[in-house]
């Protein structure tokens, strides 16, 4: 589904990603771990097409299509979803209204008419239930005054609504207490199927107890320095990242 | 903007004006300049009674001694008041024979605002068939109003038909000498609207100048007088979301509202005059004095959406004279390119238990400057007066400015005044967040701006609100790129 080859990218002549190779197939869950500043969030932003970042070499290919010239919204229409580490506030725009706009813009891009209000409401109700979201929450301004947990739950709610092919969860576990973590992870697990894929970016292996990855990659200084199975996450938890830093320095 | 100033001038030279009150005139325009003879001549031309002529002359005398105010946060070349013609009769010839001849960009804007074909023709100056929908609508409309005893006509007509009302109330809220532009308006006002709601009558429909489109065009010096008698209610809509292109660079209107005991007036405005081109050339200067007086237990609510004009100077205000009276001001002011707006309100608390609310939303883009200027004054005998003010500014890009000048004068210890202000910028992060959800940048800005303006948009009558929302989108198109 997603093939990243020799990806180099940076911001203002400062190279952050230094040759990433990664292949994600449909039905798989990949975890990307790594210390602060290793380039995890940059990788997520580059896949989503954030324009601040300049790709200097290599490619990101989604289902055989090179994304080089695709704008962020086109990538979204193609099925890429990014759950933000720090979701922004949009005052005065309700969660419902925001979702309605996003879904209908996606449909427009595919040449479809707006989703009938009845269907939209039904879908909102179903997905809200899935994430144990209170109805009142949906009429609040997007992320305004939301707690850390509410913000993340809202991100996964949006993922549920948009039904992406590839979802990237950027530090979705940060700022979550254990109950919220369980709800969010349950949501993700229920949304997962053989046709979509998930990339989980995380600092800790805690989330991976709930969302079990097929592969774990360790990112360090802009490169994937080690790949393995879920055991690798445990090893990292035990030994810390220093162990890896030393190993790669050698 | 596809218009060059030259083209615009050409178009407007032949623009149809539909005053409709003067059937005898082919075309005549007074010589430029302003003096007593001109004032008398205007009054005579309009067949006004002597008291009206004298009233205009008093205003003119006062105006001569006044100076153009300079305290507002705007810069513009001072108009030469002796280089303006103060009376221009309607030119009854339509400019175009069919819509096909009209600038497609203008038509596109009309279409996107959802304006009907007949209206489009009207607004663009196309010859309209004699039988058109709005005529029959207007007739039914007038009949319904007449049954309730509501008077809704041009101010010229009112001066002739209802002199007792006009004489009693004109200048009672905005005196002739109130300020430079109000004095000028009082001397030379061309026309405007008059509305009287009798005691205890609830006006059954929104009164809109739209229904008078056959009878009155917007003059350069418009004068509006709305009187809501005891216990009555009226909702009045002014303006139009369609872009108005006007040959008159200077506009100085006066609006007076009188809410007698237990009455309520809701006055909504959408202003979309030509703001000048992308380089700041051309555009209307809009210097407006709007004020209402509230008697006991009455309420006046101003709602405005301002997207047009090159320069705006406007402070719809409430004098809360009667006990328990309420004043409200809800405003969205958008400036783009080189537009300048200095707008806000005055809430003068005189009576006991008076309350006022101010919600002002300023949106600046391009190289524009947007200022909120507001006064909350609580007089010594205004016991338990309360005010809540909220001024929010939204900036787009790095070259625009937002300014807030709140003045608070309190002379009674029991007053409660609250003021909140925020300034925010549409961030790249917000845009990227929307983009990532599949919403393109134009749409994202529209979404953010609508969210920002929601509290005010909600105050507009339904159909007006929908149009205003679209207007905001169009006004800000291409402002972040």
TrEMBL record, chain A:
<dbReference type="InterPro" id="IPR003593">
    <property type="entry name" value="AAA+_ATPase"/>
</dbReference>
<dbReference type="InterPro" id="IPR027417">
    <property type="entry name" value="P-loop_NTPase"/>
</dbReference>
<protein>
    <submittedName>
        <fullName>Fe-S cluster assembly ATP-binding protein</fullName>
    </submittedName>
</protein>
<dbReference type="InterPro" id="IPR003439">
    <property type="entry name" value="ABC_transporter-like_ATP-bd"/>
</dbReference>
<keyword id="KW-0067">ATP-binding</keyword>
<dbReference type="GO" id="GO:0005524">
    <property type="term" value="F:ATP binding"/>
</dbReference>
<dbReference type="GO" id="GO:0016887">
    <property type="term" value="F:ATP hydrolysis activity"/>
</dbReference>
<feature type="domain" description="ABC transporter">
    <location>
        <begin position="2"/>
        <end position="246"/>
    </location>
</feature>
<dbReference type="InterPro" id="IPR010230">
    <property type="entry name" value="FeS-cluster_ATPase_SufC"/>
</dbReference>
<comment type="similarity">
    <text>Belongs to the ABC transporter superfamily. Ycf16 family.</text>
</comment>
<keyword id="KW-0547">Nucleotide-binding</keyword>
<dbReference type="Pfam" id="PF00005">
    <property type="entry name" value="ABC_tran"/>
</dbReference>
TrEMBL record, chain B:
<dbReference type="Pfam" id="PF19295">
    <property type="entry name" value="SufBD_N"/>
</dbReference>
<dbReference type="GO" id="GO:0016226">
    <property type="term" value="P:iron-sulfur cluster assembly"/>
</dbReference>
<feature type="domain" description="SUF system FeS cluster assembly SufBD core">
    <location>
        <begin position="211"/>
        <end position="452"/>
    </location>
</feature>
<protein>
    <submittedName>
        <fullName>Fe-S cluster assembly protein SufB</fullName>
    </submittedName>
</protein>
<feature type="domain" description="SUF system FeS cluster assembly SufBD N-terminal">
    <location>
        <begin position="130"/>
        <end position="203"/>
    </location>
</feature>
<comment type="similarity">
    <text>Belongs to the iron-sulfur cluster assembly SufBD family.</text>
</comment>
<dbReference type="InterPro" id="IPR000825">
    <property type="entry name" value="SUF_FeS_clus_asmbl_SufBD_core"/>
</dbReference>
<dbReference type="Pfam" id="PF01458">
    <property type="entry name" value="SUFBD_core"/>
</dbReference>
<dbReference type="InterPro" id="IPR045595">
    <property type="entry name" value="SufBD_N"/>
</dbReference>
<dbReference type="InterPro" id="IPR055346">
    <property type="entry name" value="Fe-S_cluster_assembly_SufBD"/>
</dbReference>
<dbReference type="InterPro" id="IPR010231">
    <property type="entry name" value="SUF_FeS_clus_asmbl_SufB"/>
</dbReference>
<dbReference type="InterPro" id="IPR037284">
    <property type="entry name" value="SUF_FeS_clus_asmbl_SufBD_sf"/>
</dbReference>
């Amino acid at each position: 589904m997603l093939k990243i080859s020799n990806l180099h990218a940076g911001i203002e002549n400062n190279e952050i990603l230094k040759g990433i190779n990664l292949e994600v197939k449909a039905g798989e869950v990949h975890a990307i771990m790594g210390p602060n500043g290793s380039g995890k969030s940059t990788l997520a932003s580059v896949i989503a097409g954030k324009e601040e970042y300049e790709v200097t070499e290599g490619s990101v290919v989604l289902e055989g299509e090179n994304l080089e010239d695709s704008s962020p919204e086109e990538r979204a229409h193609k099925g890429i979803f990014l759950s933000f580490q720090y979701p922004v506030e949009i005052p005065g725009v309700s969660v419902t209204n925001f979702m309605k706009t996003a879904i209908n813009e996606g449909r427009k891009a595919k040449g479809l008419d707006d989703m009938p209000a009845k269907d939209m409401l039904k879908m909102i109700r179903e997905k809200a239930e899935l994430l144990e979201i209170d109805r009142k929450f949906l009429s609040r301004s997007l992320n305004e005054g939301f707690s850390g947990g509410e913000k993340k739950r809202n991100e996964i709610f949006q993922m549920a609504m948009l039904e992406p092919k590839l979802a990237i969860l950027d530090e979705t576990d940060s700022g979550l207490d254990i109950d919220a973590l369980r709800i969010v992870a349950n949501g993700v697990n229920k949304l997962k199927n053989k046709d979509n894929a998930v990339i989980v970016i995380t600092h800790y292996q805690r989330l991976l107890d709930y969302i079990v990855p097929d592969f774990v990659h360790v990112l360090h200084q802009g490169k994937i320095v080690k790949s393995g199975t879920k055991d690798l996450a445990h090893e990292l938890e035990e030994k810390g990242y220093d162990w890896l830093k030393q190993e790669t320095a050698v | 903007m596809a218009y060059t100033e030259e083209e615009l001038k050409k178009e407007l030279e032949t623009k149809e004006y539909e005053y409709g009150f003067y059937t005898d005139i082919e075309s005549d325009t007074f010589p430029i300049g302003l003096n007593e003879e001109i004032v008398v001549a205007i009054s005579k031309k309009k067949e006004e009674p002597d008291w009206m002529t004298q009233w205009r002359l008093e205003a003119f005398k006062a105006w001569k001694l006044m100076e153009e105010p300079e305290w507002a946060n705007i810069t513009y070349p001072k108009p030469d008041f002796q280089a303006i013609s103060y009376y221009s009769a309607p030119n009854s010839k339509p400019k175009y024979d069919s819509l096909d001849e009209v600038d497609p960009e203008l038509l596109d804007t009309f279409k996107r605002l959802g304006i009907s074909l007949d209206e489009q023709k009207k607004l663009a100056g196309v010859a309209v068939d004699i039988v058109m929908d709005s005529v029959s609508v207007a007739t039914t409309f007038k009949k319904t109003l007449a049954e309730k005893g509501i008077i809704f006509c041009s101010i010229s007509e009112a001066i002739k038909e209802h002199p007792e009302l006009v004489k009693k109330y004109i200048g009672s809220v905005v005196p002739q000498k109130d300020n430079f532009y109000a004095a000028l308006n009082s001397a030379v006002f061309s026309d405007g609207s008059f509305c009287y709601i009798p005691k205890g009558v609830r006006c059954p429909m929104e009164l809109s100048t739209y229904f008078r489109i056959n009878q009155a065009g917007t003059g350069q010096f418009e004068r509006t007088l709305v009187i809501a008698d005891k216990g009555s209610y009226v909702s009045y809509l002014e303006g139009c979301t369609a872009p108005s292109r006007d040959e008159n660079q200077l506009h100085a209107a006066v609006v007076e509202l009188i809410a007698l005991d237990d009455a309520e007036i809701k006055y909504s405005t959408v202003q979309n005059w030509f703001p000048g081109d992308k380089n700041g050339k051309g555009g209307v200067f809009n210097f407006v004095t709007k004020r209402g007086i509230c008697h006991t237990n009455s309420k006046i609510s101003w709602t405005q959406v301002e997207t047009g004009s090159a320069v705006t100077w406007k402070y719809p205000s409430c004098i809360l004279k009667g006990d328990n009276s309420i004043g409200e001001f809800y405003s969205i002011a958008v400036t783009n390119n080189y537009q300048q707006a200095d707008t806000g309100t005055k809430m003068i608390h005189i009576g006991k238990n008076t309350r006022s609310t101010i919600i002002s939303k300023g949106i600046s883009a391009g190289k524009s400057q947007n200022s909120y200027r507001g006064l909350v004054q609580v007089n010594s005998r205004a016991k338990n007066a309360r005010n809540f003010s909220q001024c929010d500014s939204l900036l787009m890009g790095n070259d625009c400015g937002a300014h807030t000048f709140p003045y608070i004068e309190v002379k009674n210890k029991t007053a409660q005044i609250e003021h909140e202000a925020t300034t925010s910028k549409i961030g790249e992060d917000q845009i990227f967040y929307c983009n990532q959800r599949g919403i393109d940048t134009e749409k994202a800005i529209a979404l953010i701006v609508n969210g920002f303006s929601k509290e005010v948009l909600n105050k507009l009558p339904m159909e007006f609100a929908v149009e205003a929302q679209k207007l905001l989108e169009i006004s800000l198109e291409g402002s972040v790129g």
